[in-house]
Design brief:
The protein has two helices and 21 strands. By secondary structure, it is mainly beta. The protein has one domain: Neuraminidase.
C-alpha cells in the first residue's frame, strides 16, 4: 500500500510540474500572468430536461443564471443557492437553434416584467422551422429576442419570441452577438470568416448601433452599410501569438468595455483559451488583446461567460456531462491585462 501510495503521489507531482512548466513557458512568452479559475459547482444532478443535450450559451440577471442548451432548452440556476430554479423550452426552440450565445439587454418588453429581454444567437445556417412563422422560413443565423415569462412567484417558466435581428453577408459565418450593459448604445456581431480552424480563417468583429426594441418591428434587418467598425481578433494580439482562428469558436461577453471570449475544447490541439480584448473607450483603431490558456485546469469546452458579483462565470461541457461551472475574479482578470 505504501509503495502504491508513493508511486501515485510521484505521478501526481509529475503531472502538476508538467502542467506548470507548460503554462510557465506560455506566460514567459506573453509577459503576463493569468487569473486562476475556481470551481463553483457542477450542473449534473441539478438539471433534468437540460441533460438531454449540450451546454451552449449563458446569460445572468440578478442571481439567476440562464444556461442554454443546444436546440434552445433553458436551464435556470440560482447562483447564490447553487440550485435549480426551473427548466423550459425557449420560444425559438428547434433542431437548428444552437443557442450558442446569449445576453440580457437593459430593456424590458413591459415595465412590469421581472426580467429584461433575452437575446439568443441561433448560430446555425438553417431556419428553425419549429417556430412556425412564415416570415422566418428562409432566414437563419438570427438573433432571437425573447421575453421571459414568469409564474405568480416570479420564477421563469417560459418565453415569448418578440423580435428577430438578422445580419447576413456571404463571407460571414456563425453570427454571434455581444452586448455591454455599461455601453448600451452598441452591439457587436462576430464569427468565423471561413469556419472553425480552417485555413485562412479569421475571427471578425463588427460594431453596430444597438437597435432599440420596438414591439411593432418583429424583424430587424441589418446590412453591411450599418457596420460602424470592423476588426479581427488576431490583429489585437502580440505578433506571433496563437489566435482564436486556429481553434473552435465558442461564445463570450462584454463587460465594462472588455471582451471576454473563450474558445477550444480542452485538448492539446484545441486548447481551452480565454481571449481578453479592451474594446472601450470607442476608437476606430485596433484594440489591444491578450490570450490566456487554461487547458491544465479546465480540460473541457469553455462554452460561454457572463458577469456576476464581480466574477466572470464560465459554463462548460465535459466528459460524463458533469458540466462544471467556474468563476474568475474580475479584479484579477483586469490586473492581468494592465
Amino acid at each position: 500500500m505504501k509503495t502504491n501510495t508513493l508511486f501515485a503521489a510521484m505521478l501526481a507531482s509529475a503531472a502538476l510540474l508538467s502542467a506548470s512548466a507548460s503554462y510557465s513557458v506560455y506566460a514567459q512568452e506573453n509577459q503576463v500572468s493569468r487569473a486562476e479559475p475556481k470551481l463553483m459547482f457542477c450542473q449534473k444532478g441539478l438539471e433534468k430536461m437540460g441533460q438531454e443535450t449540450s451546454v451552449q450559451g449563458m446569460a445572468i440577471h440578478g442571481d439567476y443564471m440562464f444556461s442554454l442548451r443546444n436546440k434552445g432548452v433553458c436551464v435556470v440556476m440560482d447562483l447564490k443557492k447553487q440550485a435549480l430554479v426551473s427548466e423550459f423550452k425557449l420560444a425559438s426552440y428547434g433542431e437548428n437553434n444552437h443557442a450558442n450565445n446569449a445576453f440580457f439587454s437593459k430593456e424590458k418588453y413591459d415595465k412590469s416584467d421581472r426580467f429584461p429581454l433575452l437575446y439568443v444567437s441561433q448560430c446555425r445556417s438553417l431556419p428553425v422551422d419549429e417556430i412556425g412563422i412564415d416570415e422566418l422560413k428562409n432566414m437563419s443565423r438570427l438573433l432571437f429576442v425573447e421575453r421571459i415569462l414568469t409564474d405568480e412567484d416570479g420564477n421563469p417558466v417560459g418565453s415569448q419570441l418578440v423580435q428577430v435581428i438578422s445580419y447576413k453577408q456571404e463571407t460571414f459565418m456563425s453570427n454571434l452577438w455581444l452586448f455591454d450593459p455599461k455601453n448600451p448604445d452598441y452591439v457587436f456581431c462576430y464569427g468565423n470568416t471561413k469556419g472553425n480552424a480552417l485555413p485562412d480563417n479569421r475571427i471578425v468583429v463588427h460594431r453596430f448601433s444597438f437597435p432599440k426594441f420596438d414591439k411593432n418591428d418583429f424583424i430587424v434587418k441589418l446590412s453591411p452599410e450599418d457596420v460602424q467598425y470592423t476588426f479581427y481578433i488576431d490583429e489585437t494580439l502580440p505578433e506571433g501569438s496563437r489566435g482564436p482562428q486556429d481553434n473552435i469558436l465558442q461564445a463570450g461577453c462584454i463587460y465594462d468595455g472588455i471582451l471576454y471570449m473563450p474558445v477550444g475544447v480542452g485538448k492539446e490541439d484545441r486548447p481551452s483559451e480565454l481571449y481578453v480584448v479592451k474594446l472601450f473607450p470607442i476608437k476606430n483603431e485596433i484594440p489591444k488583446g491578450y490570450r490566456f490558456e487554461y487547458t491544465d485546469v479546465i480540460p473541457c469546452e469553455m462554452e460561454d461567460v457572463d458577469v456576476w458579483k464581480k466574477k466572470l462565470i464560465c459554463v462548460t461541457n465535459s466528459k460524463g456531462k458533469r458540466r462544471p461551472v467556474y468563476e474568475f475574479s474580475l479584479k484579477e482578470l483586469k490586473q492581468s491585462i494592465k
